[in-house]
Design brief:
about 375 residues, alpha/beta, Aspartate Aminotransferase, domain 2, 7-stranded mixed sheet, globular, binds pyridoxal-5'-phosphate
């Protein structure tokens, strides 16, 4: 099989090459961590080590992590878990979010709005990733009980000013959750100094196995369990733990946080170079703070899906938007929410570089992109 150059690390990441040997060791630990005999105790030990390692890497207490299946579950648990908690003040039923959240946040909030009468206010990120921070401040009043705003946007890479968001929300007594799935390992942050109440993480964005996640819940923040059953995760998430993925998650987070994140200088050089050869190319939100590994492009007169397929044939794996919506012909909902037209949204391409992306990959990709854009434009004339 021909090896491809993978440039879609915001969708998922390849396994860290050193993980293979560790997985063989972890496979020997097959017991149920709730059993009290030997194989169960070994499983419990590995689970404890994974929890302790993850919490140390994130700078929080092991008791503040609810280990689970990934980012989507963490987001649902944070949002619905807060809504259904016994201690929630029913007078604080207004929730503030943005218009560019991952579907696991957007749909969980939409569900509360439709079925539970929550008032959900979506503060817009507009064209060029301009976020209406003034609108956010204006929406904060005493009826706001919850704020859920992501740290880093998965398609455009836009970074929200999360520290300010938290500070202002706490002034009105709101609980603040942030989807940090795309931020982990790409930008440095300190959960304790940001003072978030809840934060979501996922294993498969940091070179670990799929199917593990963690929700950080600050001590004193109350949430209700969504999955009831056994008493795992201190009654906050029932179900036998996915030990293998959780162990890999811990290992990868420790490894990842010790590595240099992808440099924005390489990304900026790439954007400047291709711009010289492709007319009508725009970089979304280029003057805003962005994830250093992410480049979101719109290319006039080009259909992103056709370009993606042509690039795939040449051995480059990229995306036109969120992975969960590819396969559907509709343009990215996020871009439409930001005010881009259907045509503009359909002309987009997202590149997300990773730890194994080399300058050689970027150079050969740039050359191919320039050739293909010329060819596709020629065909449509
Ligand atoms: C910002 C963001 N949040 C949540 C998720 C969902 O994470 P998972 O795939 O672990 O459920 C993703 C995955 O693409 C994401 O990019």
């Amino acid at each position: 099989m021909k090896t491809s150059v993978f440039l879609d690390h915001n969708a998922t990441t390849p396994f860290h090459p050193e993980l293979h040997g560790h997985v063989t060791e972890w496979l020997k630990v097959w017991g149920n961590a709730s059993s009290i005999y030997g194989s169960g105790r070994s499983a419990k030990r590995l689970l404890r080590e994974s929890r302790n390692g993850l919490s140390k890497a994130l700078g929080v207490s092991p008791l503040e992590l609810i280990l689970n299946s990934g980012g989507s579950e963490s987001n649902n648990l944070a949002i619905k878990g807060w809504w259904y908690s016994q201690s929630r003040d029913p007078l604080k039923s207004k929730i503030i979010t943005s218009n560019v959240e991952h579907p696991s946040v957007a749909e969980a909030l939409g569900w509360l709005e439709k079925n539970e009468g929550a008032e959900v206010v979506r503060i817009p990120v507009c064209r060029e990733s301009k976020w209406d921070y003034k609108g956010y401040l204006a929406a904060l009043d005493q009826s706001v009980g919850f704020v859920s705003i992501m740290m880093a946007q998965n398609e455009t890479g836009f970074l929200f000013p999360i520290e300010d968001i938290v500070k202002e929300a706490h002034k009105v007594g709101a609980v603040v959750h942030s989807d940090c799935v795309q931020a982990l390992g790409k930008i440095p942050f300190d959960l304790k100094s940001i003072n978030l109440d809840m934060a979501s993480f996922s294993s498969h964005k940091v070179y670990a196995l799929k199917g593990a996640g963690a929700l950080y819940v600050k001590k004193g923040t109350e949430i209700n369990s969504l999955i009831t059953g056994g008493g795992q995760e201190r009654q906050r998430r029932a179900g036998t733990e996915n030990l293998l993925s959780l162990a890999s998650f811990n290992w990868a987070v420790e490894k990842r946080l010790g590595e240099e994140p992808f440099s924005s200088v390489i990304r900026d050089n790439f954007e400047n170079n291709i711009r010289k050869s492709i007319d009508g190319l725009r970089v979304t939100g280029e003057s805003e703070k962005r994830l250093p590994n992410t480049s979101h492009l719109m290319i006039d007169g080009i259909d992103g899906e056709s370009l993606l397929m042509a690039l795939d044939l040449k051995g480059f794996e990229v995306s036109t938007g969120a992975a969960c919506s590819s396969g559907r012909p509709e343009p990215s909902q996020i871009l439409l929410n930001m005010g881009y037209s259907k045509k503009e949204a359909q002309s987009s391409l997202r590149l997300s570089f990773g730890r194994c992306t080399t300058q050689e990959h970027i150079d050969s990709f740039s050359k191919t992109l320039i050739e293909l854009v010329e060819r596709l434009r020629g065909l449509s004339q």
